[in-house]
């Protein structure tokens, strides 16, 4: 864990996955923002909250994606990582420089990713 990354925002529509991520990250000493399971809530948090990094599930159900949340975070200069069961090339809105983690996630994957991200 880096000293500068403390507040982690989680956007994940599968409630069990979201709570598993919360448990893993809290055990590592991070403060969790969210989790958000709905796009509207996620967008509001992305616009206003103090966030160091975010993990964004690509598919939020009902035809919604986390793309608007990513755009808001990008405009605020907040790093984020997409999480998905899809292959990177199946997602048309991911930029070449965007970090993508493939589900299922592990605590090890989250920890490694957090040490590689520059806030």
Task: Give the topology, please.
Elements: E1 7-11, H1 15-27, E2 31-36, H2 39-48, E3 53-57, E4 59-61, E5 64-65, H3 67-76, E6 80-84, E7 99-102, H4 107-116
Parallel strand pairs: 1-2, 1-3, 3-6, 6-7
Antiparallel strand pairs: 4-5
Helix pairs in contact: 2-3
Task: Name the descriptors.
36% helix; alpha/beta; 119 residues; Rossmann fold; two-stranded antiparallel ribbon; 7 strands
Description:
InterPro entries: Bact_response_regulator (IPR050595), CheY-like_superfamily (IPR011006), Sig_transdc_resp-reg_receiver (IPR001789). Keywords: Phosphoprotein. By secondary structure, the chain is α/β, with parallel strands linked by helices. It has a single domain (7-116), classed as Response regulator (Rossmann fold, 3-Layer(aba) Sandwich), CATH 3.40.50. It contains 4 helices and 7 strands. The longest helix has 13 residues, at 15-27. The protein is globular, with a radius of gyration of 13 Å. The model has no long low-confidence stretch (mean pLDDT 92).
Total domain modules: 1
Shape: globular
Please bin the fraction of helical residues: 25-40%
The assigned CATH architecture is 3-Layer(aba) Sandwich
What is the ordering of alpha helices and beta strands?
EHEHEEEHEEH
The CATH homologous superfamily:
Response regulator
The amount of beta strand, in percent, is 25-35%
Mean pLDDT rating: 92
Q: Give the low-confidence spans.
A: none
Protein name: Response regulator receiver domain-containing protein
InterPro entries: Bact_response_regulator, CheY-like_superfamily, Sig_transdc_resp-reg_receiver
Pfam families: Response_reg (PF00072)
Organism: Parasphingopyxis lamellibrachiae
